[in-house]
Amino acid sequence: MQLEQEKAKAELDLAQNSSTMDMADLLDFDMEPPIPEPLDAVEPEPELPATRSGRHRTFPAAYKDYVPSGFTTSPTPAPEIEHSTFETEPDEFGLYRVYTSYPANDPEENLCLDDVCDDPGISAARNTLDERPWYSGFGSHISVAKSHFFAPFLNATVFRLMSWFYSGSNMKSLAELDALVNDVILAEDFDPKDLEGFSAARELGRLDNHNSVNQTLHPDDGWKESSVKIRLPAEKVKHTSEQAAPEFEVKGVHYRSLLEVIKAACTQPIAKTFHWLPFRLFWKPSPDEPAQRVITEVYNSDAFIAEHEKIKAQPREPGCDLETAIVALLLWSDSTHLTNFGTASLWPIYLFFGNQSKYPRSKPTSFAAHHLAYIPKLPDIVQDIYGQCFDGMAASANTLVHLKRELMHAIWLLLLDEDFMHAYVHGIVIKCADGVTRRLFPRFFTYSADYPEKILLATIRYLGNCPCPRCLIDKDQIFRMGTKFDARQRENIREDTPNRRSWVERARQWIFEKGLGVMSAAVERLLKPRSWVPTRNAFSTRLAEFGFNFYSMFVPDLL
Length: 559
What we know:
By secondary structure, the protein is an alpha+beta fold. It has a domain at 152-209. It is 31% helix and 14% strand. It is built from 19 helices and 14 strands. The protein has helices at residues 2-19, 23-26, 113-116, 143-147, 156-166, 174-185, 200-208, 212-216, 258-267, 302-313, 358-362, 382-389, 397-415, 418-426, 451-458, 484-489, 498-513, 521-527, 538-543, and strands at residues 73-74, 86-88, 95-99, 223-231, 247-256, 279-283, 292-294, 323-333, 336-337, 345-346, 348-353, 370-374, 428-431, 437-448. The strands form three sheets. Strands 4-5-12-11-8-14-13 form a seven-stranded mixed sheet. Strands 1-2-3-6-7 form a five-stranded antiparallel sheet, with no helix packed on it. A two-stranded antiparallel sheet has the order 9-10. Residues 14-45, 73-82 and 141-145 have low confidence and may be disordered. Residues 29-54 are annotated as: Disordered.
């Protein structure tokens, strides 16, 4: 009991001393940092009361949690790096950074627990940089969704009533009756006068006729609607060239300019936490032990550092002395079924930025995903158009699969337009959220998708002889997964070589000029051993000349 009283008194004295501290001293950057006391001089924490057996208890270390303090730069060169580097002081965990250029600031300096975690049990000062509305991913100022949330209905009263009607089960319960009163009738924007002349049939018709896509994807936020064209092959039908084959136009491609999305993201307040300068992260357990390399983010990975060095090594743009940096693009897409009934679905493409830490990027409330495009499905009328072009002939199942692949890469060719490619080569000048004007070079690092969509993007066949989009392991060797032999086999990675592209071009020439089927014997002998398909890859078409291997984007799916 006496020990507990002494502990409480010590905590009270500590709180009183902390309240009398001058905050100006804490914010004085010219002040020398305090020298930490030796570990031996730190007073040990009081132990918990002993048990009946006399065993002393201590507070479990697993329950002690705190955010490490910011890194302090030091001009001491790191021995692991050959050229001039800048090394930070180790933090409480023994982690320190090694920069190849002196950093202007630390984007993580003012982060708190709320910035990296949504746990309501953690009490910390919230950083308002990432407090954005849910609709911000659709554009920078999507006013329609904010001011007309009740669309397509005329007012909020009718919207709340119809929303209640569609919620819950078909047989309303007491809980749903309470919801009618509390969520609809007692709502602040509910007005009984708005229900004069109400007709449920009329409101249902208004809902059926409403084009929600055009209302949500507003042109003021950079959304565009376009179409793409794909060539139609037919077995035993010869053309003078591929350009002479009939085209099929797919309409309703809703997308935003990839370059405009990058501009908007880099100027938002949350971009103040972006890391523009890469570094290597090391962990030194103790002064006597060697440092170990730690990779936790995109911006401290070898791929990011290597790409940063390439940008630094290339000639500068004429008359430009701005800081150059990389915009790390992380793509994600997945076909999504919207309801438990019917066939309503969406196929969105999202864009994330690897310059942002994975912790705030993974928070649902940070809304770090930027909507880039919505991929339409191959329309049902394709068979009608196909029959008109080829005298009533129907497209085979293999031909329809081929057209789906062609559609996906035609859309990506639309996204990788001339403006983006100019920025890819020459960079784009942007005044970033931290007030520094930089020349930014967009680079692709990852593309996350499930396996069916991944092989669609990698232009390989589903569960073919070499089913992996990253390596050339044969299907009959998959059972060796996890063995040393498997590790050696995985070194045989896929590469976007000129031979691969020439074989795909030869297969397409046979299909359109000789009338061979997309899976004919000749095409199979040419492409099947490596599970290739006769589709031009959009990333290869645009980026192969710059040495980009698109196979490296498809990261393993941990799910």
